[in-house]
Amino acid sequence: QVQVAESGGGLVQPGGSLRLSCAASGSIFSIYGMGWYRQAPGKQRELVADIGRFGSTNYADSVKGRFTISRDNAKNTVYLQMNSLKPEDTAVYYCYIDLAKSYWGQGTQVTVSS
User: Fold this and answer.
1) Among 41, 50, 43, 29, which residue's Cα sits nearest to residue 95?
2) Can you say how many angstroms the Cα of residue 13 is from the centroid of all Cα atoms in its chain?
3) d(Cα 35, Cα 16) in Å, to the nearest integer?
4) pLDDT of residue 28
5) Distance in angstroms (rounded) separating the CA atoms of residues 16 and 52
6) 31 φ, ψ (degrees, to nearest 5)
7) DSSP letter at 76?
8) pLDDT band for position 27 (50/70/90)?
């Protein structure tokens, strides 16, 4: 069994920063892709960023230049550094980890508000 747990969400003012973490534990042999999605109220879930096994990255246009995804393979962990946050970044952020299938975290709330 595999467990995925996110942390690092919270309330931040516009222009501020947050760092999300997502750690996988359990029966893990090899992790392929890892990434983050988000879902705002009344909107569909959208891809924020993903990172391949060897470090290739992909970002949504709305976060390019502000967010950075990284991974620590030794810790089975993926991170999302979010800078210059905007109110429109407010959402529940979900991480996923691709093994033989995808495993998802429970989500962490990010609220950007003054």
Assistant:
1) 50
2) 19
3) 22
4) 83
5) 27
6) -100, 130
7) T
8) confident
99: exposed, middle or buried (C-beta count within 10 Å: 0-12, 13-18, 19+)? middle
Tokens 């550094």 found at: 81
CB 50 within 8 A of CB 33: yes
Cβ neighbours of residue 51 closer than 8 Å, sequence gap 6 or more: 33, 34, 35, 57, 58, 69, 70, 71, 78
What pLDDT does residue 1 have?
86
Interval 35-75: pLDDT, tens = 999 999 999 999 999 999 999 999 999 999 999 999 999 99
Please tell me the distance from the alpha carbon of residue 23 to that of residue 60, in angstroms, as a whole number.
22
Encode pLDDT of 69-83 as tens digits. 999 999 999 999 999
Rounded to whole angstroms, how far apart are CA atoms 25 and 47? 23
